[in-house]
Amino acid sequence: MPCVTVATQAELDAAITAKAECIHIEADGEFRCEVSASLQFEISGKARFYVEAWDSSQPHVVAWGSSQPHVEAWGSSQPHVEAWGSSQPHVEAWGHSMLSIFGAVAIKAAKTVYVLLRGKGAKVTGGIVRRVEVGTAAEWCAYYGVEVKGKVAILYKALNEDYHSPHGTLYAPGTVPVAPDWDGGKAECGGGLHFSPTPGHAREFHDSAKRYCACPVALKDIVVHPDGQYPQKVKATGCCAAVWECDVNGKRIEAKKA
Q1: pTM assigned to the model
Q2: Is 258 part of any domain?
Q3: Which residues of 16-38 are buried (b: 16+ CB within 10 A; e: fewer)?
Q4: What gap in Å lies between CA 256 and CA 39, rounded to an integer?
Q5: Three-state secondary structure call for residue 184
C-alpha cells in the first residue's frame, strides 16, 4: 500500500486524522501518537517514534536504518513489530495484548502477554513466548495457511489487465509460467518467479493490480528467505501446472465461453 510521508508531529497527527493506512516517518526527531485502529508505520532515519496501542488495535511498525521506535501495548491490542538494519525497536506490553515480532526487538511483557517470535535477535523478558520457524517451504505454507494439495502449494500473483506481472512475466490462465533466469534460490529478489500466500499479500507488491491468478507450485521448487526483507513471499523455478484466474479472495473465476 502507498505510504504518506511525514516530517513533523503536526503532519503525523494530520495523517492519522485523515485515516491514512500507512505512514512513513523519515525525519530525525521525536514523534508520538496513540492508536486504536489498524495502521502501518514505517520508521527510518534517526526518528524516535513512540506509539501507544489501545483497545483491539493492530499497529504494524517497521523500523529501518538507525530508528528507535518504542511501542506500548495495552488492553487486547495486537502490535506487529519488524526490525531491519541497525534499528532498535523496544516494546512494552501489558494486559492481554498479543505481540508479533520479527528481528532484533527488545521486549518487556507482562506474564499475560502472548509473544510470537520470528527471525533472530529478539530479547524477551516475561510473556508467554512462542518461536516459529519458517525456513522450509512446508513451514512457510503452514505459517500463512497456504492450501497444499499433495506436494503442491497454491500460491498467488497480482497482475495487470493483460495477465502480465509488473516485471513482464505472462500468467495467462491455462499457461505454466517458468522462470527464464532461475538462480538456484540464492538471491531473495530476482532470479526466479515470486509468489504470495494470498491474493491480498500479492497486492502488496502490485497495488494497482487488475487481475489475480492462482499458481500451483511444487514444494520442492520453493525457496524461502525467512530473514529476508520480504518474508511474506517466496521464489521458485516456476509453476508445475496451469494457472487459473481468481478474484482478490482467491475464488476461481471460470473462463468465459466464446
Answers
A1: 0.73
A2: no
A3: beeebebbbbbbeeebebebeee
A4: 39
A5: coil
Residue finishing a domain among 131, 154, 175 = 131
Cell of 184: 538456484
161 phi and psi, to 5 degrees?
A: -60, -35
* Pair type for strands 106-118 and 90-93: parallel
Chain-centre distance of CA 249, in angstroms? 17
Clarify whether residues 118 and 144 are in a common domain: no
Taking the CA atoms of 218, 199, 209 and 166 in sequence, report the sign of the dihedral they define. Answer: negative
pLDDT in tens, 18-54: 999 899 998 888 999 999 888 999 998 888 999 999 9
For residue 34, being part of any structural domain is answered with yes
- For residues 17 and 125, membership in a common domain is answered with yes
β-pair partners for 128: 114
Cβ neighbours of residue 135 closer than 8 Å, sequence gap 6 or more: 224, 226
Query: Is 91 within 8 Å of 97 (Cβ atoms)?
Result: no
Nearest to 54 by CA among 39, 31, 32, 37: 37
pLDDT in tens, 212-228: 999 999 999 999 998 88
Q: Which residue's C-alpha cell is 511501542?
A: 71
The conformation of residue 256, written as its DSSP 8-state character, comes to P
Helix ranges (DSSP H) in the chain: 9-17, 137-144, 199-203
Whether residue 240 sits in one domain with residue 148: yes
